[in-house]
Amino acid sequence: MTQTPEGTARPGGRLRAVLTGLLVLAAAGGLALGVRPLVAPPEQAPPVALSPVPTDAPAPAVTTPPAAEPTPAPEATAPAPPPEPEPTQPPPAPPIDPRLRPFVGLSTWIDIYDIELTPAEQIQRAAAGGVQLIYVQSARHKSPTDIQDADRLGQVYELAHDAGMQVMVWYVPDFVRDRRDLRRSQAAIAFQSPRGDRADAFGLDIEIEDNPDPADRSRRLIALSRRLREWVGPDYPMAAVVLPPLQLDLRPGWWPNFPWAQIRPYYDVFIPMSYSSFRGTDRRTTYRWNVGNVVEMRRLTGDPTLPVHIAGGIADNFPEVGAFVRAVRDTDALGGGLYDLHTTQPEAWPALRRLRVDPPG
Prior knowledge:
The chain has 10 helices and 8 strands. It is an alpha/beta fold.
């Protein structure tokens, strides 16, 4: 999940732009901001790989981010907004473009290492939590086949659909082996379960640094995105699963000059890996990090109404779930959920259920 603007902006200038956007939200009653920076200075922030994809040499696919010391959250002069009361009924969904349905409501993530539960147990756990959207990984770079475990993947598709859930399948390209990147993305989209179920959407997880030339990496990303869109046609739902822009500000060498605007035409939705627990686990940091990433991402793409679904977490170190839910709502995101299903704590589900939208599209 990754991204950056055309022409690298210095972190300080980008964060001032974010704060300007946040102050606009504050005027509308969405945010209470102090005068301090939104995030810690870049030199204090450890490099963090924020993704639902593991790393494997020589062509890593990072499903679970490496352990990192979270950067303490900066102080602010104003508190985060108070939590909302949990509604007794989910809000009804307005009419929505069919391509956005796999991104509306409450999601959860399953990667290829989540095998301690059976597919049936996974879907039962998700259904009990109120999940409407299952985001499941198809393979990794060193998988022996383009689909690592076709039997498990097919079961997830069928059980999720039987439970009334939408399914997005996701894959991580390395931007080195172009043919494999295209082939495995196409294999994920085309995969069918034994009874013929397919994924309702595809997500390209954009983050790998194996290609050391960021400009070449960007060219390959644009080309892969274009080829996939041409292959699936204009109506198939596709998401760009991206690193959050504020994270790229803190680590500018990760992917300078990321082609935000250039890839926007190929994707229906952007899903930032907005893992605030790497910045701090307090309520204020959780809220402001998630809101700030959406504000900045819409600025960078040049689309103030960019459809967004927020991936939050990391789920097993995420005490302020209510602040995350409030951030999803205050940014008018289509929905959100935590990475990942297996590490989401039981006490988190009541707050996460507030992200449900019935019916989801």
